[in-house]
Amino acid sequence: MLEERGAASWLTAELAPPFGRGIHFEIVAPTIAPLLAALSRAAWPLWRGVEERWYRVGQAEVGQRQFLVQDPDGYLLRFAESLGQRAKLSV
Fold it and tell me: Peptide bond preceding 30: is omega within 30 degrees of 0, i.e. cis?
């Protein structure tokens, strides 16, 4: 849940910009291509460009194609689409 400033009952410390320090949100989409196109049209910079990442989950790996943007309050938003699952690679 994101809440607008002013809900004093939930404040744990004084608010000071940038508000989003130290956290980011992952948003999974069926495909990230339309999001990238919209950001490009708006001339909004990517905080981290498109990359393919694989994360270990048990005895397998799940893949994502992802990128990050920073919103005006400083929150990092990671948009990702699934690349499926594969056997864990040996190192």
Answer: no
